[in-house]
Amino acid sequence: MTTRALQQASLLILAALAAGSRPGYRIITDVRQISGGRVRLRPGTLYTAPDRLRAEGLVGVDREEIVGNRLYRYYRLTAAGPGLSGATAIGEKMHPAAAPDLRIGQADRDAAAAALGEHFAQGRLTFDELLARLDATFAAITQGEIAQTVSDLPQLPTAQGTQRKSAACS
Predict the structure, then answer these.
(1) Which pLDDT tens digit goes with each residue over 87-138?
(2) In angstroms, rounded to a whole number, what is the distance separating the alpha carbons of residues 9 and 5?
(3) Domain 3-77, CATH
(4) Domain coordinates in residue numbering, the chain
């Protein structure tokens, strides 16, 4: 699988989990639905992608159940801060208006991608728009470049009901 395809799979998994805790098989069907049938995750991807997302602190295991001698692991999005989604919390750290030429790292790109996934899950972006913005996000080198991928999107609400800027928009 190419790097871009893995990033798309990870983002689509995050988008599926935005609706709540899901077992692996449900993530596969949700990703197919979210992508309009364009992306079909294979079970092998479902073993590696959530583990990588868990290592990055974006996804956690909600619970495990044994049904008919089969283990069902339920995944959920994690909070990167008190009451914040991972994408929103990481977005709080970025200040492109103050330092648009400041270089970014992979964690910043991943945070912006997760924010784009939330906007896609809420219907603000089409699948094609999402892919184009993801390409720009993962090619970005500075905060100013990454801010352009989310600059026209509204603020993401937090769990407390206050408004926070999307990743890279403060």
Answers:
(1) 443 344 333 444 677 888 888 888 888 888 888 888 888 888 888 898 888 8
(2) 6
(3) 1.10.10.10
(4) 3-77, 79-164
